[in-house]
Structures are given as C-alpha cells and as structure tokens.
C-alpha cells in the first residue's frame, strides 16, 4: 500500500508544477489600491483588465457608503445561523423579490456563493434516474455539480446544437427506461471564450424533446439585455429558461448569488438546497449592499452604456489590428496567440513590466497545448487612453512573440521544466 500523499508529492498537477516559477506573479498575484481601471502591481501602476467589475460599481462612493453603513450597523456576523434556523430577515426576502422581478421570474433564492450554489442547485434538481446533458466547455462549478450526480450525464460539443440534439436523443431513450427526466445545462456567457450560449436554439428544441433548461449567467447578468437582465433577455428567451442562476461577483461587485425560477421550484430548492440549509446565512452587509447595487443596475443605464462603449472600442481595435478574439459576443475579450507556456510567461512579464498592462493569462490545461489566451475584461471605468495604450502594447508583444524573442527569453525555464 502506498501513502496517500505519495501521488501529491510526485505529481503537482499541470498547473502546480509551475508553482516555483509562477506563484506570486503569474498566479496568486497581488493587485493593490482601489478597484479601478488602474491599480498597483508590485509597486507599479498598471492598466487592469482582469477585474470583473463590469459596471464599475466597486469603488463608487455611494456603494462604499452603503457597505460601510451596513457593516457599522450590523457587523460582519448578523444574521447568525442558516436561513432555515435563525438567519432569515426581511431584507433577505426583499432582495429575493427584487431580483426575481428584475430577471422576470416568479421567485428567487439567495446563495452564499455562485460556485457552491450552482453545484448544490444541480444536486437538488436531479435524482439518479435523471439524465444531465451539458456543454463540454461549461464552467468548473457546473462540472463539479454534475460530478455529484449519481445518474447518467452526457456532454455536447461547445455551442453545437446538432451535438446537443444527438445527445438529447440518447438521453430521451435512457429516460424512457429509467422513468427520469432530462436537465440541459448551458452558460449564458462562457467566461473564457466570451461566446453567448445558444439559448434561443436550445429553447427551440423544447418543442421536440422534453427537458428543463438550467442557465449559469454569471457574465450576462447586468451586462446583456435591454434592461441588463441577462443573456436570456438579450436573446428573447428568458421566459423559457426554467432555472436561472447569476452571481453578485461580476456586475454587482460583491459576494453572493441567486437562483430564480417558478415559485414552486424555488420553494422546493429552499427546503432541499444543502449548501444553504447547512450554511450560515448571507451576512447583512452583502444583502444591503446588493439591494443598492441592484437599484443602480435598474436605474443607471448609463453604466451599461459606458461599459459597451469600451467593449466595442477594445474589441474593434483588436480586430482592426489583426488579432484573433474568437467568436466573443459579450464583454469578455479573449486574445488568442500561439506559443508555449514558458513563452506565455515571458510575454506576460513583458506586458506587465514594460508596458504596464495587467491581464489574465490562460494556458493548458484550460485551453489546448500551444495556445496562449490573454483574457481581458473591459469595464465602465476604463478610458479610451487605457484602450489605446493597450492596443499599442499588444501589437508590440505580438511582434516579439512572432520573432522568437520570448522563446529565447524562456529557454531556461522551458529546459528546467522539461518542456
């Protein structure tokens, strides 16, 4: 018998093996200063493209005042206990009612975290007799939620409706045998690629197949749709999304999440959602803060308008300079380049040290080997000056990548890691 930890000591994992070279700089970096378009990284000012504060709410004085006042009045602990036991308040109920109205659903229920909540929602919605069909590029929280499922699950190719239908046929045959139902899961916006899920096309299949649709709209909530109600509103199918989930960690610049659906479904989840039944209630500072933020989403359309002005300027500028930004049709702006992980490290260091640009780097195993993805999140706080400086910097680093500069700079790292 081997020691349980032997495997861990021998194999750090595809990302963990880079820890000695990457930690503190490429992963677990420390951005300092007020959350905004420009922050400090290792003592230097950088243009930040990795903060999910889409509408620029995080540092607004009126938002910070609400958060501060709530903390002063209630502290960080109130209410104590789980919602079902002693953690329930009028403000929790008020926020749920207002969120439900905003996303055009009968009811909603608060979740402490989007990741944890989504896993638990999946677990609560299905039994071992049910079949899950989900997009292969789904977020990790969906994948982990599906792993909890004791029954069958099938993946369909990313945003491929023909692949989805093929798997719905398989799921239908199986469900006829088990006596179960079918749950289809997609994202409203896929957080790496920036592509909207094909919700309209998925909903159209309901006329042919009997399934329910669950959508994770973390990146669509507050950024898409006429009112900001999300991807379903953007595509005109919000009513046909059976269970809708979004987080406060993006447009709302806070912590928490919510699930919205018909009243009977929410009533069921309230009594069967283990992540909330056995966890402390969302603290009042976040509930009062979310009420203020939601009010701003509803009544300050200029925030979303400014966000999209910046999104369009950045994405059009990248395309005009010949960059590959994939099929994004959301705020998420991926830039695809060809190169190794060591080259990606050299490139990102150059961007940060010499051009003052801070964006997230994504490499294998999140994306295929040989690809480098620089993921950018435009916000309402960015300026045209930020965008022009960034476009110039990206043109410069692409030239250095293509002429082999980063390969030379990264040779020692690559050799040390056996790449």
Q: What would you note in describing this structure?
A:
This protein is of the alpha/beta class and 419 residues long. Helices cover 43% and strands 15% of the residues. The protein is built from 17 helices and 14 strands. The chain has a seven-stranded mixed beta sheet with strand order 4-10-9-8-7-5-6, with helices on both faces. Strand 13 and strand 14 form a beta hairpin. Helix 3 runs antiparallel to helix 12, helix 4 runs parallel beside helix 12 and helix 5 runs parallel beside helix 6. The longest helix has 20 residues. It is globular, with a radius of gyration of 22 Å. 44% of the residues are buried. The model has no long low-confidence stretch (mean pLDDT 93).
Question: Structural class, from secondary structure content?
Answer: alpha/beta
Average pLDDT reading: 93
The tally of helices reads: 17
Strand content: 15-25%
Q: Termini, distance in Å?
A: 32 Å
Main β-sheet, in a few words? Answer: 7 strands, mixed
Given as residue ranges, the uncertain stretches (5+ residues, pLDDT < 50) are none
Q: How do the strands of the widest beta sheet line up side by side?
A: 4-10-9-8-7-5-6
């Amino acid at each position: 018998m081997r020691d349980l930890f032997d495997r861990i000591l021998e194999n750090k994992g595809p990302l963990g093996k880079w820890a000695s070279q990457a930690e503190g700089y490429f992963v677990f970096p420390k951005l300092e200063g007020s959350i905004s378009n420009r922050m400090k990284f290792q003592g230097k000012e950088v243009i930040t493209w990795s903060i999910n504060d889409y509408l620029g709410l995080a540092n607004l004085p009126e938002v910070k005042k609400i958060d501060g006042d709530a903390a002063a009045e209630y502290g960080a602990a109130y209410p104590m206990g789980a919602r079902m036991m002693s953690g329930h308040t009028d403000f929790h109920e008020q926020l749920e009612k207002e969120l439900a109205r905003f996303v055009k659903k009968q009811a909603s229920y608060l979740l402490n975290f989007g990741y944890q909540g989504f896993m638990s929602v999946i677990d609560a919605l299905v039994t071992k007799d049910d079949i899950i069909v989900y997009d292969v590029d789904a977020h990790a929280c969906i994948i982990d939620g599906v792993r909890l499922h004791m029954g069958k699950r099938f993946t369909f190719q990313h945003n491929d409706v023909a692949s989805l239908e093929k798997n719905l046929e398989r799921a239908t045959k199986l469900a006829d045998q088990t006596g179960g139902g079918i749950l289809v899961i997609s994202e409203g916006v896929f957080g790496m690629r920036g592509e909207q899920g094909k919700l309209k096309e998925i909903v159209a299949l309901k006329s042919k197949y009997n399934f329910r649709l669950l959508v994770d709209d973390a990146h669509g909530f507050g950024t898409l749709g006429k009112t900001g109600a999300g991807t379903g509103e953007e595509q005109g199918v919000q009513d046909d999304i059976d269970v809708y989930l979004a987080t406060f960690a993006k447009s709302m610049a806070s912590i928490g999440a919510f699930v919205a659906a018909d009243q009977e479904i929410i009533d069921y989840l309230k009594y069967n959602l283990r992540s909330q039944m056995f966890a402390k209630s969302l603290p009042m500072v976040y509930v009062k803060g979310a009420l203020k933020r939601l009010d701003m989403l509803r009544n300050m359309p200029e925030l979303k308008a400014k966000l999209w002005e910046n999104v369009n300027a950045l994405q059009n500028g990248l395309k005009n300079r010949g960059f590959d930004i994939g099929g994004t049709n959301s705020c998420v702006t991926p830039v695809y380049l060809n190169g190794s992980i060591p080259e990606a490290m050299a490139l990102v260091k150059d961007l940060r040290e010499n051009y003052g640009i801070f964006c997230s780097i994504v490499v294998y195993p999140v994306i295929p080997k040989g690809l480098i993805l620089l993921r950018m999140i435009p916000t309402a706080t960015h300026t045209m000056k930020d965008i022009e400086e960034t476009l110039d910097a990206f043109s410069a680093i692409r030239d250095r990548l293509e002429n082999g500069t980063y390969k030379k700079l990264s040779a020692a790292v690559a050799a040390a890691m056996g790449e």
